[in-house]
Structure formats: structure tokens, C-alpha cells
Amino acid sequence: xxxxxxxxxxxxxxxxxxxxxxxxxxxxxxxxxxxxxxxxxxxxxxxxxxxxxxxxxxxxxxxxxxxxxxxxxxxxxxxxxxxxxxxxxxxxxxxxxxxxxxxxxxxxxxxxxxxxxxxxxxxxxxxxxxxxxxxxxxxxxxxxxxxxxxxxxxxxxxxxxxxxxxxxxxxxxxxxxxxxxxxxxxxxxxxxxxxxxxxxxxxxxxxxxxxxxxxxxxxxxxxxxxxxxxxxxxxxxxxxxxxxxxxxxxxxxxxxxxxxxxxxxxxxxxxxxxxxxxxxxxxxxxxxxxxxxxxxxxxxxxxxxxxxxxxxxxxxxxxxxxxxxxxxxxxxxxxxxxxxxxxxxxxxxxxxxxxxxxxxxxxxxxxxxxxxxxxxxxxxxxxxxxxxxxxxxxxxxxxxxxxxxxxxxxxxxxxxxx
Length: 418
Hints:
It comes from Couchioplanes caeruleus subsp. caeruleus. The chain is α/β, with parallel strands linked by helices. The protein is 43% helix and 14% strand. It has 18 helices and 14 strands.
């Protein structure tokens, strides 16, 4: 980041202090923490956000070419060098992940998990249908994966899709060694399905096995054409995603080579998910399933005393591609704070977000970083900065210059520029 302008405090309406009307930085920001920039008015004071206040999450908004990637990279490297857990998702060209790999300290090599379509020597694998991996039950596994798919593909998700997807995943989750890649076969190969259903129900208690059997008996009683029509929206998109070698190697083998809990407890997960390589559906589904896994690991931290929970950070560049969690985004952000997992949510303009995302991020990502904004976004976000700055200040920011509206000591404080 570039330097910080810091004249004496004054309301934004004061023509003598129109450009940047901020109170002295040293009254509001300590040194250390996660640094955002360096002051150029008076002492070259670093401004940033303390580790504790990072738990209130951070919203980074600005067009391409304004410095967002540089900010994200520096924040991630700071956490890596401090030994904290960090996960980063990049759905664009992958420049953020490539730049991080070029700058990653050698000492972090044994903590690093890289998910990258160009990585074919020893690609990581995670079995999303293995309850032992996530510390939950088969029902938890089926419900979480179904919830993610229903949100990623909401435009095509029929009224029976969730019911079918859930029971199919539940059947597989009860069978050791099953994977997400087997879901299409379970729904399209009736003979193979009969064997899998029998194996699952025989291993269950009578009431649970009977419930599963009744579902599949009802499904198989439907005419073949009707069954095909019901599963087509799910299968057409899932097959397309799983056809890519990266997705198949990641989700299509029984083995699991890394732990989401280990990532949060000091590991480094870098997810390079370029849409131009794995497709938009691939980017959104793979990233959202991985994020859901991190979320499950986050909720499991509730079993650990709060003073023993290490801080971790999840960075989502172009965050709207991945915010398809099993629970509401507002609830997830609110819960994550107490579980010491902070989210950095970055994107280019507000129109990329759904209404739910806008409201959740506005209320729960209380640390704000703005780059030079388009007029419409500047008008909307200026309410977070008045009376110190207004929309004109947000529009006139230079390249690699930002406005930080931070939380300090658990409360929102006046903005600074960096």
C-alpha cells in the first residue's frame, strides 16, 4: 500500500479540510496487528487492525487495478509468517495465488496445501462424504453438501432436487470409501444403486434403514422418464464439474490428504480456481464446497475453550463466487467472530452481490477498506465514513490508495487513508 494522508480532523463539509479529514492516527491505531498502510503526514505511523479486531471481519471493495490484490497478498503473507492459519481463494486468473507462491517463506512449505489445476504431480484430495473427515454424522455431511449445491445452482434447483440429492448423499455417506464422484452413478444406474442402497440400509438401525429404503422405493417406482427429468438439473452440472481432472482428483478418491481443522490451526490453504480453466460452475462449486468444509471446522472450534482457539483468516477474492454456506452469511460471520476465524471479503462492485450478501457484509464485516470506487458504490458506502469523508473522496482516491474504516477495541472509529 502507498502512504497515508492525515490532516487535522474536520467535518467533510469544511472546505479547509475537504480532501481527507482525519483525526491523528496515533490516537486510534496501535502499531503491529495487520498493517494496511503507512502515514505520510507527520511520523510514518503504520495503520492497521489488531488481531482481535480482525475477528469483526473485513470488506475490501474496489475495481481491478486499484491495489486489492496487493493488499490481500500482504495480509496473507503476514499471517503465514506469523504462523497463523490462513486460506485464500482466487477465482480469476490466479495472479494472487501465483504471487503468494513466489513470496511464500520456505519455512511454510510443510504447512502448505495448494489446490491448482496446474498441479498434477501430487494433487491434494478431500473426501467430502467421509464423516470422520469433518467430525460429524452422515446426516451432517449430506445436509451440508446439499445446501451448498442448492445455493450454487439455485436457478436450476427444482422442488424435488434437494430431497433427491440429500438422500443420495446420505446413502453414500453411510458407505465407507464412497465419494462425491459416485453421486451421478447412484442416480443414473439403477442396478448399481440397488446394491449400494442395500449395503447402506443393512448397516443401519431398523428405523433409519426403513426410512432410506422407503425413499428409494418411491424413487424407483417413478417412470424412468420422470426420474431422468428430476435428476437432470443436478447431474448435468455436477458431471460437467467432475469431468475436470482437478475436481475428480480432489473429490473423486476415498483418501483424504489434508484437514480443514489443521488449516485453521496454522496451515496454509491456497485455492487457485480460475473460471477460464475449470469453468464458472467448477469455480463456484469447488470453492463453495471447500469453504463449507472450512466452516464445519470453524464450528467444531466451539468444543475448544475460547482462550485456546488460535486465530485464523479466510480470504475470498471475488467473494460472491463462494458465499454459499449451509447457513446464512450473516449468521456465519457472527458466529465466526467468537470462534476466532476472520473473513476478508473482497470484490469489485456492489452489484456483484445478492441482496442477502450485501446486508450480511454491511452489518457483519465491520472493518471496511475502500479503493477508488465507481460513483454509485461511492454514494452507497459514504454513509460509513461521514462526517469525515464523503462519496467524492472515495471517487478521487488514487491508484493503490485506500480508505480504511476500522474497528479498534471492539468499536468503529473514524477512517484513515493509506
